[in-house]
Model the fold of this input.
Amino acid sequence: MENRAYYENEIMRDIREIPESFLPEVYNLFQSIRNNFNNNKISNKKLNSTGLCGIWQDDRDIKEIIAEMESGRNYFASR
Done:
């Protein structure tokens, strides 16, 4: 797997090849990606606030959940 410096060099090389007239669109796209990343960091902190596995939300009865887990295990046995 490449490191950060590799990706930074590749991104800069690609940016230098983009025609100047497209740079505002590339800039807006980059800002959108960055904002999305920052928003995801905030929502991930909220999800992980209860522990290692995040927040579990399910309205099903425990028996339904266990039945689903067991049915998933049988999938590979039928192969």
Remarks:
- The mean pLDDT is 79.
- Helices lie at 4-16, 23-47, 62-77.
- Residues 35 and 41 are 10 Å apart (CA to CA).
- The chain has one domain: 4-77.
